[in-house]
Design goal:
Blueprint (H helix, E strand, L loop, with lengths): L5 E2 L2 H9 L11 H4 L3 E3 L5 E6 L3 E6 L5 E8 L2 E2 L5 H18 L4 E8 L1 H5 L5 E14 L6 H6 L2 H9 L2 E3 L2 E6 L37 H17 L9 E2 H8 L13 H13 L16 E2 L25 H17 L3 H9 L5 H5 L13 H12 L11 E7 L5 E7 L3 E8 L8 H24 L6 E8 L8 H7 L2 E3 L7
Parallel strand pairs: 3-7, 11-12, 15-16, 16-17
Antiparallel strand pairs: 1-8, 2-3, 4-5, 5-10, 6-9, 7-8, 8-10, 13-14, 14-15
């Protein structure tokens, strides 16, 4: 007989069934952030079924068939501390499920005895093989059943002093797959090393402490920022950072588990040295992102501790916020060297060798970007310009911006924003290019109207790419009316 599956970690349970991260602020906040019920990504409401509150009754009218009932939601006088908020949230979720006719399921769980004595409810263990469909028993249609089985009286005896009895459910046969039920036993016991699940767990590595790793991580992250080019910041995954830290498990593999705590300490270190000269230091550790899963490409657990409304954003809004932070990180430039000095940290080796370079910090121009600009300028026919026209790279606009390539005749102005293959490292830069083209077109239109009010020249702006525009951005380009030139190869 197979051993019954038990999950003793509420964090693992809610991550597995509903993709809810109870460590999103920190493991210390989990007591407040662990729900009693939650919606799965498929909009199934998953509930905690406390074993001591499930009522088992033999129904004599149906030949002694065992029937099981539970009351969920409502409010009880014994609730204290986080239990009050958990109960209120659980009740709201049940109301939403009822209003939207959403499926409701539950997993049996043992309460922690010590927590019960404090008037709280904390899960000791979830039984992963005791998942149940929950069918609502309504007051009118189920009145005979409630009366015949004396459900109200029995629940009053079971639940004690109740302010609001909540909703009555019967545990019935399944109507579909259960969130988390199909995962093999121990699915979260050893999560992939670059997955968010274990990033705030203590890592079983010998040697350095989290604080020591944090002091190593800051120079590594700053060096990574320094070597970026073309205003594009390619993030690191947790596994990438583990590799650069030489942080390994007993098998010699790069080990990301526990890096959430390391990065949290790194952020605290940086925040501690904020001065009037270095106010509003960007959120450096956001350049470390999940390498897989739902949040692939985004910063992992813990970011909500600083960005309070982050979890309320949708995927596109999160990407936009993170991308904007990357631009701030790059714009901070050489001030990152000052951060290292104030922390008493030595730069990473590459920074030591090239601290006077004018490039870097995202502002240095890559050879690829430079070659693409020069190729466009040397081949004006690609954008409808002619060889005899005025042409210039990095043409200054009156808005303070510079456009990569500019052609001008007496009747037409043509601007070109270019994106080299470097942009493949961060697809968001292609989207940025589309909006840059719109911005530059608007500025050039305004300049044309002011400089030539009688007969303003025709303005066109192109986005020229060394590679191809990501397929998911084609509709955006069409909607914005941006002309995109693809596969422009300077070496062809």
């Amino acid at each position: 007989m197979d051993k019954e599956r038990v999950e003793t970690s509420p964090h693992n349970f809610w991550k597995l069934t509903c993709d809810v991260d109870t460590y999103r602020k920190s493991p210390q906040h989990a007591r407040h952030d662990t729900p009693w019920n939650a919606f799965s990504p498929e909009e199934v409401l998953v509930c905690t079924l406390w074993k001591d509150q499930i009522l088992d009754i033999e129904d004599d009218a149906e030949g002694g068939r065992l029937r099981r009932f539970v009351r969920l939601g409502g409010k009880m006088r014994e609730w204290k501390g986080p239990a009050v908020a958990h109960g209120r949230e659980a009740d709201e979720n049940l109301r939403r499920a009822a209003a939207d006719k959403l499926r409701v399921v539950g997993y049996e769980a043992d309460p922690d005895p010590a927590s019960l004595k404090r008037g709280e409810r904390k899960v000791a263990r979830f039984y992963m093989d005791r998942a149940h469909e929950l069918q609502r028993v309504f007051g009118f249609s189920g009145a005979d059943l409630v009366t015949r089985l004396r459900l109200e009286e029995r629940f009053q005896e079971r639940r004690g002093d109740t302010i609001d009895p909540g909703y009555l459910f019967e545990l019935v046969s399944p109507k579909g797959a259960f969130p988390g039920r199909q995962s093999p036993p121990g699915a979260l016991a050893n999560p992939p090393e670059d997955d968010e699940v274990g990033l705030f767990d203590q890592a079983p590595t010998a040697g350095l402490s989290n604080a020591e790793y944090a002091r190593l991580a800051v120079p590594i992250l700053i060096e990574h920022v320094r070597v970026q080019r073309d205003g594009v910041l390619q993030p690191l995954t947790y596994k990438d950072l583990a590799e650069r830290l030489n942080r390994r498990n007993k098998h010699g593999e790069a080990w990301a588990k526990g890096l959430g705590q390391v990065l949290g300490m790194a952020t605290e270190m940086i925040d501690s040295i904020a001065t009037p000269e270095l106010e509003d230091i960007p959120y450096l550790t956001t350049i470390v992102v999940s390498g897989q899963g739902k949040n692939k490409g985004l910063p992992g657990i813990g970011i909500s501790g600083r960005w309070r409304d982050y979890e309320a954003l949708n995927r596109q809004e999160k990407e936009a916020k993170v991308f904007a932070e990357y631009l701030r990180i790059l714009s901070f430039g050489s001030r990152w060297s000052t951060v290292l000095e104030l922390l008493g940290l030595s730069p990473a080796d590459a920074t030591k060798a090239d601290t006077s370079s004018a490039g870097g910090w995202g502002g240095g121009e890559s050879d690829e970007h430079k070659a693409l600009k020069q190729f466009i300028k040397a081949n004006p026919h690609l954008v409808g310009a002619e060889p005899g026209w005025f042409s210039e790279e990095e043409y200054a606009l009156k808005s303070g911006d510079e456009i990569d390539v500019f052609f001008r005749s007496g009747h037409q102005w043509i601007g070109v924003e270019v994106k080299s293959c470097i942009s493949d490292k961060l697809e968001r830069d292609y989207e940025r290019g589309l909006y840059q083209a719109i911005k530059y077109a608007a500025v050039l239109e305004a300049q044309a109207q002011v400089d030539h009010p009688g007969a303003p020249p025709i303005v066109k702006v192109f986005l020229a790419l060394e590679r191809t525009l990501p397929s998911h951005l084609r509709a955006t380009a069409e909607k914005l009316g941006v002309s995109v030139l693809e596969n422009i190869s300077p070496s062809a």
